[in-house]
Design brief:
The chain contains eleven helices and twelve strands. The chain has about 270 residues and is α/β, with parallel strands linked by helices. Strand 10 and strand 11 form a beta hairpin. It starts with a helix and ends with a strand.
Length: about 270
């Protein structure tokens, strides 16, 4: 009888998410927030104040949203507003909240062979890379950064898929791997600023274009809808979200710096 009960318990634990057994909150997140050290900084502070542990699964934004749609999340933090709004409209999330922002930057070799540094817009910079035919390394992984990049090529009126595998190369990987490849090939790429600041293997890469309003990078936070996912840890995930959006949480986000540089700017609504 005891053996049967032990097996039954193991089966139940396997079937149902771990969040229903304790205070753990499962967060599906974009990689930039994790790779920048943001969660290593903020989650211990939150746990110290509330006793709640948050487990992070960091993948590209597209994959994070798919995971949340499959009920493999209690809360979602990503950076692709259109997809986030669709996630809520389709009933997978309760409400989307602005959380914080930074921006994207266009990187390349310091000598800037495509002459983008004096561009008047991000689209002009991409057109210059296109004109010279210098290598551009794309994440190609349906992440928030990849979505932004594709949008910029569209705004530049360049059908980028026609050049895939030529001067336009897709890694299908995260930002760190893409930056490493860009550095090795002395190529160009688009990166979120937080990952770039914390990236170690910069070699000859530098920021060559920044400041365009179209490079704005907004992060959103969404609770997974318990009506779609009945085993979602509603109580603790709501406490986590409310803390992030509170004055205390927003001030904590603002204080996070690497080498004296602020990585994220709180703007909760």
């Amino acid at each position: 009888m005891e053996t049967y009960l032990n097996k039954l318990i193991l089966i139940i634990i396997f079937i149902f998410p771990s969040s229903i057994w304790g205070k753990d909150v499962l967060l599906q997140s974009t990689t930039s927030t994790k790779n920048s050290g943001f969660y290593s900084y903020i989650l211990p502070i939150f746990k110290n104040e509330t006793g709640i542990n948050v487990k992070v699964v960091a993948v590209g934004t597209g994959q994070a949203i798919r995971n949340a749609e499959n009920c493999d999340a209690d809360i979602l933090i990503v950076h692709a507003k259109r997809d986030e709004e669709a996630f809520v409209e389709n009933g997978h999330g309760i409400e989307r909240h602005n959380l914080m922002y930074n921006d994207f930057v266009i990187l390349g070799p310091s000598e800037d062979p495509a002459e983008i540094s004096n561009s008047q817009s991000a689209e002009e910079a991409l057109n210059s890379i296109f004109k010279f035919g210098y290598s551009f390394i794309s994440r190609g992984d349906n992440s928030g950064t990849h979505k932004k990049e594709k949008n910029l090529w569209e705004n530049a009126q360049i059908e980028i898929s026609a050049y895939s595998g030529k001067w336009y190369k897709e890694t299908g990987s995260g930002m760190g791997t893409t930056l490493n490849i860009t550095a090795e090939l002395n190529a160009y790429t688009l990166s979120d600023r937080a990952t770039w600041i914390t990236f170690k293997n910069k070699k000859d890469l530098k920021i060559l274009y920044e400041g365009d309003k179209n490079l704005f990078n907004q992060y959103g936070a969404i609770l997974v809808n318990p009506e779609k996912c009945p085993y979602t840890n509603v109580k603790e995930s709501k406490i986590f979200l409310n803390w992030l959006l509170s004055k205390n949480g927003q001030e904590t986000i603002q204080k996070y710096k690497v080498n004296g540089i602020q990585l994220f700017y709180p703007n909760a609504n």
